[in-house]
Amino acid sequence: MNEWWRVARSPGVVWRALRVAMVVGSVLVLINHGDHLLTGHLAPNDLYKILLTYCVPYCVSTYSATSALMARR
């Protein structure tokens, strides 16, 4: 398990996951909160939801990349 966390925190995995999270997260934010963003009616709990929207693709990308790298070894 320690090896898995070491690979998950490696710069290549982190940067790739950040790029995926920015692209996929932005698309999901527009889909889910675009109307609130356009009208400027964001509630405080919407900000938490938006942050979580970026966390999900980051976690999925990190898990996928780390699992693939670990399977190669």
What would your notes on this structure say?
With 73 residues, the protein is an all-alpha fold. It has one domain (15-72). Helices cover 89% and strands 0% of the residues. It is built from three helices and no strands.
List keywords for this structure.
73 residues; mainly alpha; 3 helices
List the helices and strands and how they pair.
Blueprint: H1 2-8, H2 11-39, H3 44-72
Q: What is the count of β-strands?
A: 0
Between the first and last Cα atoms, what is the distance in angstroms? 14 Å
Query: What is the number of helical segments per DSSP (H or I, 4+ residues)?
Result: 3
Helix content: over 70%
* SSE order: HHH
Mean pLDDT: 95
**Uncertain stretches of 5 or more adjacent residues:** none
How many domains? 1
Principal-axis shape equals elongated
Sheet of most strands: none
Class from helix and strand fractions = mainly alpha
Quote the beta fraction: under 5%
Radius of gyration: 15 Å
Summarize the structure.
The chain is built from three helices and no strands. It has helices at 2-8, 11-39, 44-72. It is 89% helix and 0% strand.
